[in-house]
C-alpha cells in the first residue's frame, strides 16, 4: 500500500530482457532503499514492484509481460526518469490517498497551461476507467496522488502546485506524454457492492 506522496525522482539504470519479460534496475535518487527487505514493495511511477536485489539507492525488480503491457514501464529505457515511493508502514502519515500500486491503465496528457504559480494539466483516460474519475475525487497519476478539478467525458484536469512540479516527473509532461493511472480504490469497491446488491 502507498499514499501517492512521491519521495523522490529516480531513473531506470538498465532494462534486461529475460525470456519475454524484463529485469529492471532502478536508481532511486534521494530515496534510501537499503532498509527495504528483498520481497518488499516499491512504487515506480505508480507501479508496485517487488525488490529482488537491493543497494542503498537502487534496486532490481522482475517485471512481467502483463505489467509491461499495462503500464508505461513497457516503453521505459535506460535513463527514463521515474517517481519513487516506498511502501506505507504502520503509523506513517497518510498524506495522499490509499494507492495500491496496481495500475489500471495508461492515459495521456492532452493539454497543459500555466495557472498562476501552478500548472493545469488535462488528461484523457481509457474509456473503461472514465466512470471512476469524479470531480474533487482522488486519482493517482504516475504515482502522484492528485485531486480532480473537473471531468468531461473521458477527460479530467488537475492543478500541479510548485512543490509537486519540483519533486516529481510530472513537470516534464507535455501533450502526448503517456502516464500510469490508478483510479480511487473506494470507487471500485462501491461499484462492486452496488452490483452485488442488484
Would you give an account of this structure?
This protein is mainly beta and 198 residues long. Helix content is 13%, strand content 42%. The chain is built from three helices and 13 strands, in the order E-E-E-E-E-H-E-E-E-E-E-E-E-H-E-H. It has helices at residues 65-70, 162-167, 185-197; strands spanning 8-18, 21-27, 41-44, 47-55, 58-63, 81-86, 105-115, 118-124, 138-141, 144-147, 150-152, 155-160, 178-183. It has a seven-stranded antiparallel β-sheet with strand order 10-9-13-7-8-12-11. The longest helix has 13 residues, at 185-197. The radius of gyration is 16 Å and the shape is globular.
Distance between the termini: 30 Å
Instruction: State the helicity in percent bands.
Output: 10-25%
Low-confidence stretches: none
Q: Per DSSP, what share of the residues sits in E-state strands of 2 or more residues?
A: 35-45%
Largest sheet data: 7 strands, antiparallel
Q: Within the largest sheet, what's the order of strands?
A: 10-9-13-7-8-12-11
Q: Strand tally, please? A: 13
Tally of separate helices = 3
Query: Per the principal axes of the C-alpha atoms, what is the gross shape?
Result: globular
| Mean pLDDT value | 94
Amino acid at each position: 500500500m502507498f499514499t501517492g506522496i512521491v519521495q523522490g525522482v529516480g531513473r531506470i539504470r538498465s532494462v534486461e530482457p529475460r525470456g519475454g519479460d524484463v529485469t529492471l534496475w532502478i536508481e532511486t535518487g534521494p530515496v534510501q532503499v537499503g532498509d527495504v527487505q528483498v520481497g518488499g514493495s516499491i512504487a515506480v511511477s505508480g507501479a508496485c514492484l517487488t525488490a529482488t536485489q537491493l543497494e542503498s539507492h537502487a534496486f532490481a525488480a522482475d517485471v512481467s509481460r502483463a505489467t509491461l503491457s499495462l503500464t508505461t514501464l513497457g516503453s521505459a529505457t535506460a535513463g527514463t526518469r521515474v517517481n519513487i515511493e516506498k511502501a506505507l508502514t504502520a503509523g506513517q502519515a497518510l498524506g495522499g490517498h490509499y494507492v495500491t500500486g496496481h495500475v489500471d491503465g495508461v492515459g495521456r496528457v492532452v493539454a497543459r497551461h500555466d495557472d498562476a504559480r501552478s500548472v493545469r494539466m488535462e488528461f484523457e483516460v481509457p474509456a473503461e476507467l472514465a466512470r471512476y474519475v469524479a470531480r474533487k475525487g482522488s486519482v493517482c497519476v504516475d504515482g502522484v496522488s492528485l485531486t480532480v478539478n473537473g471531468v468531461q467525458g473521458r477527460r479530467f484536469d488537475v492543478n500541479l502546485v510548485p512543490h509537486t512540479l519540483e519533486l516529481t516527473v510530472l513537470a516534464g509532461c507535455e501533450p502526448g506524454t503517456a502516464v500510469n493511472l490508478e483510479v480511487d480504490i473506494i470507487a471500485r469497491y462501491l461499484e462492486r457492492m452496488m452490483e452485488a446488491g442488484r
